[in-house]
Amino acid sequence: MVVIDTNVVYSALRSRLGSSFVLFNALADGKVDYAVSAALIFEYEDVLKRPKNRLIFTETEIDQILDSIVALSSRHSSYFLWRPFLKDPKDDMILELAVVSESDRIVTHNTKDFNGSTKFGVKAITPLDYLKKEKLL
């Protein structure tokens, strides 16, 4: 089980050329066990619908993509009280989801943001490294 950081989802929707897009397709094909929470889906929505991010998708299409992500994933709630642990509270939310879902990986382009996550048995890894590790390339 893995948790996918918002920057990976955004990258996958922005370009079809990178490892984020390959990972996103692996999720859609059911090749990756993926954990989400309501808080993470709301963060995805917030970032993907920001006017400055200018994706080619309409808000309705983004809603459909998010609905698909929810339908294809394992849904979890977290109620941990040990925040803050990381520098960014939104990253804490992702780490909490990884812990409660028993995920051993957070897939992100910003691995340094999750320094210390190994204390909880969770390693931050880039999309390319994850794809290589799981032999999805």
How does this model look, in words?
Helix 3 (38-48) packs antiparallel against helix 4. 46% of the residues lie in helices and 9% in strands. The protein has helices at 6-14, 19-28, 38-48, 59-72, 89-100, 127-133, and strands at residues 2-4, 35-36, 74-75, 105-107, 123-125. The two termini are 18 Å apart. It has a single domain, classed as 3-Layer(aba) Sandwich (Rossmann fold). Strands 1-4-5 form a three-stranded parallel β-sheet. Strands 2-3 form a two-stranded parallel sheet. It is globular, with a radius of gyration of 14 Å. The protein has 137 residues and is mainly alpha-helical.
List the keywords.
single chain, 137 residues, mainly alpha, Rossmann fold, 3-stranded parallel β-sheet, two-stranded parallel ribbon, 6 helices, 5 strands, globular
Short structural description:
The protein has 137 residues and is mainly alpha-helical. The protein is 46% helix and 9% strand.
Q: Topology of this protein?
A:
Elements: E1 2-4, H1 6-14, H2 19-28, E2 35-36, H3 38-48, H4 59-72, E3 74-75, H5 89-100, E4 105-107, E5 123-125, H6 127-133
Helix pairs in contact: 1-2, 3-4
Q: What is the strand arrangement across the widest sheet?
A: 1-4-5
Stated plainly, the CATH topology is called Rossmann fold
Give the CATH level 1 class. Alpha Beta
Gyration radius from CA atoms, angstroms: 14 Å
Question: What's the end-to-end separation, in Å?
Answer: 18 Å
Counting H and I runs of at least 4 residues, what is the number of helices? Answer: 6
**What is the share of helical residues?**
40-55%
* Mean pLDDT, all residues: 93
